[in-house]
């Protein structure tokens, strides 16, 4: 079976989004006595998204996407997401230090000590600079 | 008090050593705070406002002017060096500025940003002095149909930002429009696309989306490379640390373009610096001899939006000081500050408080000069930031992004959104969807929809209002022309191809 | 004798303990629902400055911005902080009306601890200076002749601008269009540029334009005439018997705080409203002193919301609570 191009899949996702928008827009007033309603604009751009993305799906594929290394990127993103989730319980300084440690040690394969030093150093710098010096709250 | 007399008087006040000091402090503080994304000039001024209660109004205003310019410049700095837009208007600077940094020309980019800001800011203030009243009347003629035309023109610029695939750029822009629509509808109070989340009722904060897509997306993309690289080539040699003579010559048109576009757009209440920077970028690209290179690090691509950004302030002061109507969020805060000090900006401001008005004008000149003086020498210093190894710099970028986003609304939900948009930014990069149109759609979408609905309400449902009014009609024509350009190019290409095949 | 002494001492101790039962020891968080520079934010900062000037608080006030949801996020934040002794919030009319129309805005003023009502913002009904309408009656008559053609600029549908319009429309049977503009500046620009015919405007903003000859005021939305506008009739005087719906601002605190803390805050704000800086603040901004203590505020809240409910329903806006 012929491999589908990435454009095909992204086109499908966008078409789904377009469809969803159009669906929701139907539920709102298109035109009220006062003027166009909340459904007016979304309907039109929803249709536009749908049309263009279907065009994308149907059109010949462009370049291949190079997925090498994306595993690392996704792993980094997962770490960031975990950090954000942890903010509520651990607070910024701790969660961020952990994230930095992870990034330096795992992503960049530096020695544990370097990782720890960098993590603590940067987190401390943030702590000093923002809440203490400028009065800006940390998450 | 005639213009020259008033100006000299204003300068006399502004140049007093105490006031100079305040200006300096303001610029310094402004730059530091402005570097933090999300804390743009309005928020910075609001935060530092209490300090000014203890000072004389003239000194306080001068400090505010300094803070304002500092914050704008701080935002540009992070845009260029880290691809983190400091505020909405800096997004356009990211496009070419960051690319210049990647090529090792960060110093030149930073320098030209300061210089363009200075030139445009000066033009802006001159404009304010000389043409304020007639321009204010012109601004009043501008209402919803004209705004719609302006927004349409802005969105048509997507054509110029398209890169390889116009379809993907359009899709990107449309998704941006959708994102702009998330929230509570202004006219009917109906929540749209809020997925049941309380925090989404007021819509997405631009800062969250921009930082996520640009900065985090970039970081994630860079994570793919396992080897520890220098993040960006560190500029070496004076040629790369400051703009060269050639650079300045290249930017001649950009200076003019940025100044004029910024000033005129600033005069219109409600049209902000973001639109000004996009439009001036678009115009620059349209008229440039090397338009295909825009987006890869062309210096005019930094000069034009930076200039527009700055001239917009001068323009925004026109409606403020002549009509008491703030032209942008920053001038709204300025208005509030003036009110708190007991002054009432409005049609009579100039005649009631001539010395304050002229000190304000003089302080803006001064702020501009101070910015140049302070920052140009610091440019090489800032550029050294790039020396930091990747494993230090990227966590710092992530951290700054999170803190910056949090500071705008103190909401963990926003930080979560940031992470989500970071992923989106990364995917868009991989799948070759340009991200600038997304931002364009996000910024202009809300305003455009409002303008359209307001126009239709004004005309009682007749679309004709958009074409019967001259200004609106002109802009819509321009927008259509812009959109038609790629069509012509395609037709032309087919024609060529057909001619070839016939031979 | 000794016993009495001990009793007296004990009573004294109790009394002293009561008096110094609550004083804030750390900077007080003041929650507002706008971003930095917005209306509530500026009010909070002004109040903080006045507190310092009049030395009413032993500690500083720190403004915390919790934007979103038309006040719902800030209200929810305060509700979460049950029993927190270091936080208060500034509310505006939006906190009262939003829960009526938005089912996501679950926290009403009743779920929080009211402390005081501070100001009432009056409004004026204004037209462009060269408009053909010299009195409100002229405008209404014209609107009756051409229903739906005249236009008013204002904020969102649930804003006070529209409420005044709804009340007048119901009372007179006239109809005119309402166009929402998110910013005050844009509304004024629309009026001055001739794109709309009428607007409801705050006296502070109007003052300037009137002096400059740009605007004319047809009526005031107040109970009695404002000091700055002695020649302008109130709505009642102009012949329109509609309730005066005020725009309010006041102070709340998280629920579940001890009674002595409530008393403390009530007292602080009462003193504030009697101070010279406050009077100057009111005069500069042309606010009406709408001071009410906690109990009266609660009563006001109930009355206001039921009035609003009626008005919104008449206007055809979906009411969820």
Brief characterization of the structure:
Chain A is an all-alpha fold and 139 residues long. Chain A is built from four helices and two strands. Chain A has helices spanning 6-26, 40-58, 70-107, 112-134; strands at residues 31-32, 35-36.
Key descriptive features of the protein:
B: 503 residues; mainly alpha; 2 strands; C: 321 residues; D-Maltodextrin-Binding Protein, domain 2; six-stranded mixed beta sheet; five-stranded mixed beta sheet; 11 helices
What does this structure look like?
The complex is a heterotrimer of chains A (139), B (503) and C (321). Chain A is mainly α and 139 residues long. Chain A folds into two domains: 53 residues; 65 residues, no CATH class. Chain A contains four helices and two strands; from the N terminus they run H-E-E-H-H-H. In chain A, a hairpin with a 2-residue loop joins strand 1 and strand 2. In chain A, helix 3 packs across helix 4. The longest helix of chain A is centred in the middle third of the chain and has 38 residues. The termini of chain A are far apart. Helices cover 75% and strands 1% of the residues of chain B. Chain B has a two-stranded antiparallel sheet. In chain B, strand 1 and strand 2 form a beta hairpin. Chain C is 44% helix and 19% strand. The N and C termini of chain C lie far apart (63 Å). Chain C is globular and about 65 Å long. In chain C, the strands form two sheets. In chain C, strands 2-1-3-10-4-11 form a six-stranded mixed beta sheet, with helices on both faces. In chain C, strand 6, helix 6 and strand 7 form a beta-alpha-beta unit. Chain C folds into two domains: 164 residues, Bordetella uptake gene, domain 1 (D-Maltodextrin-Binding Protein, domain 2, 3-Layer(aba) Sandwich); 99 residues, Periplasmic binding protein-like II (D-Maltodextrin-Binding Protein, domain 2, 3-Layer(aba) Sandwich), CATH 3.40.190.10. About 3% of the residues of chain C have low confidence. The longest helix of chain C is centred in the C-terminal third of the chain and has 21 residues. Chain C contains eleven helices and eleven strands. Chains A and B meet through helix 1, strand 1, strand 2, helix 2 and helix 3 of A and helix 8, helix 9, helix 18, helix 19 and helix 20 of B.
């Amino acid at each position: 079976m012929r491999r589908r191009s990435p454009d095909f899949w992204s086109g499908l996702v966008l078409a789904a989004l377009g469809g969803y928008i159009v669906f929701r827009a139907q539920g709102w007033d298109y035109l009220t006595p006062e003027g166009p309603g909340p459904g007016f604009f979304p309907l039109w751009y929803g249709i536009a998204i749908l049309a263009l993305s279907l065009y994308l799906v149907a059109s010949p594929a462009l370049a291949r996407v190079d997925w090498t290394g994306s595993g690392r990127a996704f792993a980094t993103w997962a770490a960031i997401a975990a950090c954000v989730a942890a903010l509520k319980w651990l607070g910024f300084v701790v969660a961020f230090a952990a994230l930095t440690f992870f990034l330096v040690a795992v992503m960049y394969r530096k020695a544990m000590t370097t990782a720890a030093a960098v993590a603590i150093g940067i987190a401390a710098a943030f702590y000093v600079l923002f809440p203490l010096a400028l009065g800006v709250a940390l998450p | 008090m005639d213009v020259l007399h008033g100006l000299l008087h204003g300068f006399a006040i502004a140049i007093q050593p105490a006031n100079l000091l305040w200006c300096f402090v303001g610029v310094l503080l402004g730059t530091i705070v402005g570097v933090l994304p999300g804390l743009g000039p309005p928020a910075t001024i609001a935060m530092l406002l209490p300090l000014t209660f203890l000072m004389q109004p003239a000194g306080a205003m001068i400090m505010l002017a300094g803070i304002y310019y500092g914050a704008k410049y701080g935002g540009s700095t992070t845009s260029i060096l880290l691809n983190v837009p400091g505020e909405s208007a800096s997004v356009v600077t990211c496009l070419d500025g960051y690319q210049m940094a990647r090529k090792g020309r960060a110093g030149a980019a930073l320098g030209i940003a300061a210089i363009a800001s200075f030139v445009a800011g000066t033009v802006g203030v001159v404009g304010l002095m000389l043409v304020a009243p007639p321009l204010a009347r012109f601004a009043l003629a501008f209402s919803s149909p004209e705004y719609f035309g302006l927004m349409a023109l802005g969105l048509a610029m997507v054509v110029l930002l398209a890169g390889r695939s116009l379809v993907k750029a359009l899709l990107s822009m449309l998704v941006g429009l959708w994102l702009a629509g998330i929230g509570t509808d202004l006219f009917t109070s109906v929540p749209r696309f809020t997925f049941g989340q309380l925090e989404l009722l007021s819509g997405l904060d631009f800062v969250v989306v921009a930082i996520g897509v640009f900065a985090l997306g970039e970081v994630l993309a860079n994570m793919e490379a396992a080897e520890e690289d220098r993040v960006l080539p560190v500029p070496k040699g004076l040629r790369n640390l400051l703009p060269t003579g050639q650079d300045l010559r290249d930017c001649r048109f950009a200076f003019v373009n940025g100044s004029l576009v910024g000033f005129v757009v600033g005069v219109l209440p409600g049209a902000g610096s973001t639109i000004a920077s996009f439009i001036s970028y678009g115009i620059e690209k349209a008229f440039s001899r090397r338009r295909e290179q825009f987006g890869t690090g062309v210096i005019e691509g930094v000069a034009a939006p930076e200039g527009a950004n700055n001239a917009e302030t001068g323009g925004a002061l026109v409606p403020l000081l002549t009509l008491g109507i703030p032209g942008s969020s920053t001038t709204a805060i300025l208005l509030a500050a003036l009110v708190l000090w007991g002054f009432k900006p409005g049609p009579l401001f100039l005649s009631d408080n001539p010395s304050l008005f002229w000190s304000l004008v003089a302080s803006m000149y001064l702020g501009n000069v101070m910015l140049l003086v302070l920052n140009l020498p610091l440019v090489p210093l800032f550029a050294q930031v790039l020396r930091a190894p990747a494993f230090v710099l990227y966590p710092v970028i992530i951290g700054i992004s999170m803190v910056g986003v949090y500071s705008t609304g103190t909401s963990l939900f926003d930080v979560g959104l940031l992470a989500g948009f970071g992923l989106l930014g990364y995917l868009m990069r991989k799948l070759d969807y340009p991200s600038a149109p997304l931002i364009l759609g996000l910024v202009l979408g809300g305003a455009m929809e409002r303008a359209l609905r307001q126009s239709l309400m004004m005309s009682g449902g007749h679309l004709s209002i958009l074409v019967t009014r001259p200004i609106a009609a002109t802009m819509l024509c321009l927008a259509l022309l812009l959109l038609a350009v790629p069509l012509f190019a395609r037709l032309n290409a087919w024609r060529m191809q057909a001619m070839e095949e016939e031979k | 004798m000794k016993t009495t002494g001990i009793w007296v001492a004990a009573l004294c101790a109790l009394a002293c303990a009561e008096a110094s039962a609550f004083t804030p020891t750390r900077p007080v968080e003041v929650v507002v629902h706008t971003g930095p520079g917005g209306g509530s934010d500026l009010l909070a900062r002004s109040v903080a400055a006045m507190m310092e000037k009049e030395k009413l608080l032993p500690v500083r006030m720190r403004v915390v911005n919790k934007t979103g949801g038309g006040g719902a996020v800030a209200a929810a934040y305060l509700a979460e902080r049950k029993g927190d002794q270091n936080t208060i919030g500034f509310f505006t009319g939006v906190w009262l009306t939003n829960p009526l129309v938005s089912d996501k805005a679950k926290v009403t003023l009743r779920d929080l601890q009211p402390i005081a009502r501070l100001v009432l913002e009056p409004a004026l009904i204004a037209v462009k200076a060269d408009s053909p309408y010299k009195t409100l009656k002229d405008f209404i008559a014209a609107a009756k002749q051409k229903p739906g053609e005249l236009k008013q600029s204002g904020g969102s549908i649930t804003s006070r601008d529209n409420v005044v319009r709804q009340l007048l429309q119901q009372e007179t049977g006239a109809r005119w269009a309402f166009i929402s503009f998110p910013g005050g500046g844009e509304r004024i620009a629309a009026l001055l540029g001739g794109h709309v015919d009428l607007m409801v405007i705050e006296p502070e903003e109007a003052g300037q334009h009137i002096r400059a000859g740009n605007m004319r005021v047809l009526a005031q939305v107040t109970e009695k005439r404002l000091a700055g506008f002695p020649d302008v009739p109130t709505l009642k005087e102009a012949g329109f018997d509609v309730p005066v719906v005020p725009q309010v601002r006041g102070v709340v605190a998280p629920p579940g705080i001890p009674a002595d803390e409530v008393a403390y805050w009530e007292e602080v704000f009462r003193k504030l409203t009697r101070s010279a800086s406050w009077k100057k603040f009111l005069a500069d901004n042309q606010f009406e002193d709408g001071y009410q203590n906690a109990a009266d505020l609660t009563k006001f809240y109930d009355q206001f919301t039921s009035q609003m409910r009626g008005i919104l329903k008449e206007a055809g806006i979906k009411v969820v609570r």
